[in-house]
Write a structure and sequence with these properties.
The complex is a heterodimer of chains A (527) and B (385). Chain A is of the alpha+beta class and 527 residues long. In chain A, the strands form 6 sheets. In chain A, strands 12, 13, 14, 16, 17, 18 and 19 form a 7-stranded antiparallel sheet that branches. In chain A, strands 1-2-3-7-6 form a 5-stranded antiparallel sheet, with no helix packed on it. In chain A, helix 1 crosses helix 2, helix 2 packs antiparallel against helix 3 and helix 5 packs across helix 6. In chain B, strand 1 and strand 2 form a beta hairpin. In chain B, helix 2 packs parallel to helix 7, helix 5 runs antiparallel to helix 6 and helix 11 crosses helix 12. At the A-B interface, strand 4, helix 2 and helix 3 of A face helix 1, strand 1, helix 5 and helix 6 of B.
């Protein structure tokens, strides 16, 4: 019986991980709430409904400690109903700037966490978009599974024995001895109870399996997509503007999304559960093309006429196996990374690093350590402490940009941002596009900031987001453009990572590539 | 029948040395479980968010411990206490002696405790209370039922042994009323609103659940009006819960809030089970000679006819402005409800032919439920230990 139970439980003994940003489901946000500068971390519980742990660092508030109040609440993007009253975050012992709170998240998809801070400097609040999806499957094994199996066995044996004893003795007047017929009756009842309960347990197991299968179907997967490349007749695709240039194409193959292109559908209709796309930094898609050996990297901005097929010009990347990552943001603030494998054929043109408009590409000749950039005039240096990088803890992703002599240089906004970064694990299980504001796409933030209660028809909000996006992409409010950029983030798991950091200087995009080894968090789990 | 054992009970006095407090303790536990359940449902409809340590959960856990510990004590005392009459009115399980009810209570407590880590894992794996009907919640529900059935068995065996003691009859009727409340609460979750009382589902659900609970408990009772008493206890318990809960200030703590309630949302007004129960008390003593298989269709059909006759028109009152007051407490809705005219309309109604077709199955269900009730009632009236 124990073996049967543990085998039943063992069927669940594996874990599946995927998420909106591939393998990196947590939200990191750095920004202002009124007079306060905040670093917000929203941990993704990996299942919905669930409790999300939120930590808020109020920078430079140590002297005010005890007088700063931090409250937070969660609400769904499209909820017409009111949010619950904000709840008090608790100061974290030993860190006067840090506050922590756990909040229930009831609905999957695009949610927001509203953080309110008040203190001597005044009060302010900020909305942090956060995507919550079922992203992992929990195994039932170890001591818990063994313990439950043993308890289940005792409970089974117990009720069967009680049934047998009840049939044997319960209706006997007190003091009357149990005769042979009674004993037989008890044994029959015991057997019958065992059979009925076994059938009930088998039914329960089938039910559990059905629930688990339904849950697995509900685990978030990005819309399926396929990538392809076309070769031009021209020999140097980077030099020609002809329509016959080599291209890289990412095509969304999600049938519900594609079917929504049917013209007979009313405009703005939600597409297979997803709202329309909105531009992020003026682009409907940020396409990253990364070779499987991580040596070649391109950040492209494809054009589209139907939001199904996205086509970009192929930069002079070496031939070989690649993966294409398409970052898109929906009107609801839901961000997803579409991904598909791609094989690029070698071209006659020599692979090189460079940029064209906002598109940029970078080919690393040797494994990157620090200071390697795609430009001969600019150096990107990772101001990395000696301490090892640990999974789950804030990573010191701070970079200084200088000229070759080490003098600070002046940066220009690159698509409205001081810098962009892509973090990727060498097995491709983690891929995320970061900004100095964190993991939250600016478009998602804007869709929450601009949303009103009357935005009930898909497509109406996206027009306003688009209008403000084109204006905002050149001058980003509150953005400082020094020569130091940093990205709030924590590596989600131990392993080998590559980080590409991109800034713009003198009209050209400069890419620095860095390798990082991240070790596992040795602190006890649940601490 | 209970009276048949009276001379024997008197001659041996098996209850003379048995303390009554385990009966009261398990009765309290049984009541606390159903109160905790009703409170917990209200909590989810009003506040939305809870923890393992929320007050209704704590009440249920304390109830489980009281039932488990007092019955565990009873088993140990009977086994090792040297009380011969107590041992002689016990059943033997794994070498230990105790009344059947005590064993079922202990098992129920163990089920409830075992469900906690299982439920915790389930929430981590599949989400917080995505569905009320989940495998760990079923383990919990079987545990709760175990304690309530155990309390009832403990009471019925004491009543059957010492039918001369009126307290024992009342304790048994109370434990049965609490069990009926539990059964009705399970239906009421889905179909207890006046708005449902013209949908076939309401009559189907009540036909499945109520006759077995009402007949099964009434048949073993030594009272003159057993079913009426049991239904009255259910009605009183529900009314007290409704009147108290709506006094307690509470606000929702989960998004989105469509209905900003400020007091605990009470359960719907109790079903008028007291009417079919009263008729049952008139019929049962006059049909003692009838075979169960003949009596069951009579009771089943009678039950459904009375339920339809009563609730079809009673629901008109429940949906009228006259019921929107503290006494009847209708028009109290969850924080997640978007209020609209649906509050005063009938839900899930079907055309007359559909209703009639559904009634066929409902009558069959009521007959089977009545038959089971008769058999369970007969078995219960024989329980001596």
């Amino acid at each position: 019986m124990t073996r049967l139970l543990s085998r039943a439980l063992g069927a669940f003994a594996f874990v599946l991980i995927c998420a909106a940003h591939i393998g990196s489901p947590d939200t990191w946000f750095e920004g202002n709430a009124g007079p306060y500068r905040l670093l917000v971390h929203v941990s993704s519980p990996g299942v919905v409904p669930a409790i999300a742990d939120i930590s808020v660092r109020v920078y430079d508030s140590a002297r005010e400690a005890g007088r700063v109040a931090v409250t937070a609440s969660v609400n769904k993007f499209d909820a017409a109903g009111a949010p619950p009253p904000p709840e008090q975050a608790i100061p974290v012992a030993g860190d006067p700037e840090l506050y922590a709170i756990s909040l229930w998240v009831m609905s999957g998809g695009s949610n927001s966490v509203t953080i309110n801070v008040s203190g001597a400097k005044g009060a302010g609040s900020v909305i942090v978009p956060a995507v919550f999806v079922a992203s992992r499957r929990l195994s039932l094994d170890g001591p818990l599974a063994t313990g439950l199996a043993l308890v289940g066995l005792v409970l089974f044996a117990g009720i069967v024995s009680i049934a047998g004893a009840a049939a044997r003795e319960a209706s006997l007047p007190p003091g009357t001895p149990v005769d042979a017929a009674r004993r037989r009756r008890g044994r029959i009842a015991l057997g019958a109870a065992a059979v009925i309960l076994t059938l009930a347990l088998l039914g329960g197991r089938a039910w559990w399996r059905a629930e688990d299968a339904a849950y697995r179907r509900s685990i978030y997967r990005p819309m399926p997509a396929a990538a392809s490349a076309t070769d031009s007749s021209a020999t140097d695709s980077s030099a020609t503007d002809s329509a016959a240039a080599s291209t890289i194409e990412l095509r969304i193959t999600d049938s519900a999304w594609v079917a929504s292109r049917n013209e007979s559908l009313p405009p703005g209709r939600s597409r297979g559960g997803f709202t329309p796309l909105i531009p992020d930094h003026g682009k409907l898609m940020h396409m990253f093309v990364v070779s499987d050996d991580l040596r070649a990297f391109a950040h492209l901005h494809p054009s589209t006429s139907d939001t199904v097929i996205f086509t970009a010009r192929r930069p002079p990347l070496p031939g070989g196996p690649y993966h294409v990552y398409g970052d898109v943001v929906h009107e609801s603030g839901f961000a997803q990374t579409l991904t598909a494998p791609l094989v690029l054929r070698p071209q006659t043109a020599e692979p090189s690093s460079g940029s064209r408009g906002d598109d940029s590409w970078h080919v690393t000749v040797v494994p990157a350590t620090s200071g390697v950039t795609s430009s001969r005039e600019t150096m990107v240096r990772w101001d990395r402490p000696v301490a090892p990088l640990v999974a789950g803890r804030p990573a010191p992703l701070r970079f200084t940009i200088t000229d070759l002599e080490g003098n600070p240089v002046e940066l220009e906004p690159y698509m409205g941002m001081a810098a962009h970064a892509v973090v990727m694990r060498d097995d491709r299980s983690v891929f995320i596009h970061l900004h100095p504001s964190g993991t939250v796409p600016m478009a998602a933030k804007r869709s929450f900031d601009l949303r009103t209660a009357s935005d009930t028809v898909p497509g109406t909000l996206s027009r306003r987001v688009t209008a403000t996006d084109s204006a905002a992409s050149s001058t980003h409010a509150g953005m400082t453009l020094g020569n130091v950029v940093s990205f709030p983030y924590a590596f989600p798991s131990a392993g080998q990572y590559r980080i590409w950091v991109q800034v713009k200087r003198a009209g050209r995009v400069v890419t620095g590539a860095f390798d990082a080894e991240v070790t596992a968090d040795e602190r006890p789990a649940g601490g | 029948m209970a009276t048949a054992t009276l001379p024997l009970a008197n001659s041996q006095q098996p209850t003379a040395n048995s303390p009554l407090w385990p009966l009261y303790a398990t009765l309290f536990a049984s009541a606390a479980i159903v109160v905790g359940l009703i409170w917990d449902i209200s909590w989810h409809r009003t506040i939305g968010r809870d923890t393992f340590w929320s007050p209704p959960h704590v009440l249920e856990q304390v109830a489980a411990l009281i039932a488990g510990l007092s019955c565990g004590w009873l088993v140990l005392r009977t086994t090792f206490g040297g009380d011969r009459p107590a041992k002689q009115s016990s059943i033997r399980v794994w070498g230990f002696y105790g009344p059947l009810g005590a064993w079922v209570c202990i098992w129920g407590t163990a089920m409830m405790i075992a469900s906690a880590p299982f439920d915790n894992w389930w929430h981590n794996a599949y989400g917080l209370d995505v569905k009320i009907i989940s495998p760990p919640h079923m383990v919990l529900a079987w545990g709760m039922m175990g304690i309530q059935v155990g309390a009832m068995l403990l009471a019925v065996s004491a009543q059957n042994r010492g039918a001369h003691d009126p307290r024992l009859k009342l304790i048994y009727a109370a434990s049965a009323g609490i069990l009926l409340t539990m059964f009705a609460t399970v239906i009421v979750e889905d179909a207890g609103f006046g708005n449902e009382m013209r949908s076939p589902m309401f009559y189907r659900m009540t036909a499945i659940v109520i006759p077995v609970a009402l007949i099964g408990t009434a048949r073993a009772s030594g009272l003159r009006w057993p079913a009426t008493t049991v239904a009255a206890i259910y009605t009183a318990l529900m009314l007290v819960m409704i009147w108290i809960l709506q006094l307690v200030p509470a606000t929702p703590l989960l998004a989105p809030i469509y209905n900003p309630v400020t007091r605990m949302v009470p359960p719907p007004f109790p079903l008028l089970l007291i009417i079919p129960a009263f008729l049952l008390d008139l019929v049962l003593p006059r049909t003692r000679a009838m075979k169960d298989w003949l009596l069951a269709p009579l009771l089943g059909v009678g039950f459904v006819v009375v339920m339809v006759g009563v609730h079809w028109y009673w629901s008109e009152f429940l949906l009228s402005p006259a019921a929107r007051n503290w006494f009847f407490a209708v028009d109290k809705w969850d924080y997640t409800n978007r209020l609209g005219p649906w509050r005063y309309e009938y839900w899930n109604t079907v055309a007359a032919t559909g209703f009639a077709r559904s009634m066929g199955w409902t009558l069959l269900a009521a007959t089977i439920s009545s038959f089971l009730g008769l058999r369970i009632g007969r078995a219960m009236s024989r329980v001596q230990r």
